Amino acid sequence: MTNSQTEEKGLRAELLERVHAIGPVLADGVAEGDRTRRLPDASVRAVDESQVGMVWTAKSYGGLEADVRTLSEVTKALSHYCPSTSWVVNNINGSNLLATRFPARTQDEVFGDDPGVKLASIFAAFGEVERAEGGFLLTGKWPYSSGILHDDWAILGAKETVAEGEPPKMASVLVPVADLTIEDTWHTVGMRGTGSHTAVARETFVPEHRVLPVEQQLGRGNTTDVSLPPLLRTPAVAAMAVICASVVVGAGQAARAFVVDQAPKRGIAPTTYRSRPESQTFVSSLGRTALSIDAAEMHVNRAADVIDEAAAAAVALPESELRRIRGDVGQAVSLVTVALDELMWAHGAAAFSESCLLEQYWRDANTAARHAMLNVHVGHELYGGSFFDLDCIVPSL
Ligand code: FAD
Fold it and tell me: Which residue range is the domain that position 328 belongs to?
């Protein structure tokens, strides 16, 4: 093992310890987060103090600069305590990584005074930017702004207004959250604690150095740049897909642990079984479900490791590998959602009680699994198409 691999393992173990240390605070906040549709202040404080939002912040700005596998492990562990916190932490880390594509001056502005600064990124919708003296005016609405209630900056997708007949230009625009207003729109079945409301800009001035062509933002131009540390060479979109899938896998693992823990204490109505493990039907179905969740984790691990190895070696991943990564993440979340349904059956009617932890994992994982990057149909089509050199149906892998 190389020195840097040993260091990464040490950091991974240290971060997992920190997650378990703050875990009870996060778990205590789940009901409040679900009710108020935002993370409780105590959860946000715990995130800040443990530095789990700094895993993908560059060391040059005081961050931890860990790899994809490390953040995936941290994410899975966070999901056991609170999937919404896990999701917000992922969005902060992923967005912080996206910010490293901006020029040094912009990065100094964002990270220079505070290595714990938190970013959101929203490309689910595109607003508009229009040229103005020294920069641009930004106008638009961005739903699905995960973490926006707790973040300092947001990276927003926008179309540049161009003269008639000119080709369209898409930009990535970095703005302080203080320059935006937030519309309360996040009324969902799951992932309620993420407070993924709608960010709104009305002719907000954005200086030139905070606007980047979207191809540069979501592209893979850095992958072979040996002057950068491995994290900054990492293909950000693929990496974000892996960590988002890890939230779902962690929720599946937590749900399985819950059902296993409860099983010996409960009978099976209306049978004569007094303890569930006495039933061969119960243990066999649990075995099958547990293997699906294991398989989901293997998909996510494979994807994380492929990305990390390429980043460490400063080689560009071929498109076929990037397509398989989207297949891996889609397959992983799909396996978990099916497994969660089976766990709900295994636990019985009590699983649907609002006070049951299992229904929280079920709602949260099912909601997160519908994120566009995790779409299983798209993942299958991308991977299947790679065997026949079919055109790539997703512009940014
Ligand atoms: P789509 O995701 O477009 O769903 C299309 C559906 O069509 C699919 O589910 C699929 O079942 C079905 N379908 C049928 N045929 C096909 C086919 N051939 N191929 C593919 N699908 C097919 N975005 C951000 O940019 N930033 C964020 O911070 C953010 N946070 C989010 C948080 C959560 C919890 C969720 C769920 C989403 C978030 N998003 C975020 C939004 C996400 O990126 C997408 O923009 C969003 O999922 C689009 O939703 P949609 O309802 O338009 O459906």
Answer: 230-386
CB-based contact 121:154 (threshold 8 Å): yes
CATH code, domain with 361? 1.20.140.10
* Same-domain status, 365 and 248: yes
CA of 125 to the centre of ligand 1 (A): 11
Distance 397 CA to ligand 1 centre (A): 15
Do the domain assignments include residue 304? yes
Tell me, what's the pLDDT at 162?
87
123-138 pLDDT, tens digit per residue, is: 988 899 999 999 999 9
Is there a single domain that holds both residue 237 and residue 373? yes
User: Whole-model pTM?
Assistant: 0.96
What does the pLDDT look like over 316-344, one tens digit per residue? 999 999 999 999 999 999 999 999 999 99
Ligand 1: list residues with CB < 6 Å.
91, 121-124, 144-146, 191, 194, 196, 367-368, 370-372, 375, 377-378
Please indicate, yes or no, whether residues 142 and 105 belong to a single structural domain of this protein. no
